[in-house]
Amino acid sequence: MTFYELKEAIIIGFFLSFMIGPVFFTLIQTSILKGARAALSFDLGVVLSDVVFILIAYYGSKSFLEEIKDDPRLFFVGGSILLVYGLITYMDKSQKRTIQDETLVLPEKTNYKKLFLKGFLLNFINVGVLAFWLGMLVIVGSNLQMNSAKIFNYFTLIIVSYLITDIGKILLAKQLIKKLTPSVTYKIKRAMGIMLMVFGLVLVLKGFIPKEKLHFKTVKTVIEKTE
Fold it and tell me: What's the pLDDT at 74?
């Protein structure tokens, strides 16, 4: 993997950790109510469900992606998925509330196995997460020429970056809860939605470029020069 790819994977993992939703709120509140170990158990369940989703997306679409990995229309497919996911994230108003409004009923004695399972199921029932990982796989797989080793390393780095950021959130939970007012959480979620829509739209437009006019090396060189 190149340095650019490493940096990109780390940044994606970092921003994923701040996607406002049930998992985000429950993680913070679990840390405050039951401590860091309990929150980490919950988070590991969430991470495992993400890994399962990535594997489902990879093995479910591998043969298809292998056939069209050099086709620019692949960007249209991945971009469309991320565009729709970003639009849903932007329009969703269900999380316009504070963490204090969340109700989390836990037994007096912390059951780490149940928290792990809770994290897994809470994330796994969200079909939108699978759609997101599928869109990412379509894009990343195309850029990495469907090289299994590179794809594995790329997504591993995303997950590790995501987990490390979550650990930071767990340790700073009490400070975060003071900052996450309804207005702030709502703005964060809408900002993440806009970012996904912009990224998806760019990829969709890229998918309309005829193959003979799409010089990947030239495009990559131009991008690197503008950074």
Answer: 65
Is the Cβ–Cβ distance between 131 and 84 less than 8 Å?
A: yes
End-to-end CA distance of the chain: 18
Going from the C-alpha of 171 to that of each of 99, 168, 176, 180, the distances in angstroms are: 16, 5, 10, 15
Amino acid at 195: M
Residues in contact with 35: Cβ distance below 8 Å, sequence separation at least 6, in sequence order: 110
The encoded tokens of residue 55 equal 């594997």
pLDDT digits (tens, 9 = 90+) for 188-226: 777 777 877 887 787 777 666 544 444 444 334 433 444
The tokens of 9 are what?
């994977």
Evaluate whether 145 touches 71 at the Cβ level (below 8 Å).
no
CA nearest neighbour of 51 among 199, 163, 195: 163
Q: Which residues contact 58 (CB under 8 A, 6 or more apart)?
A: 137, 141, 151
Q: What count of other Cβ atoms lies within 10 Å of the Cβ of residue 18?
A: 15
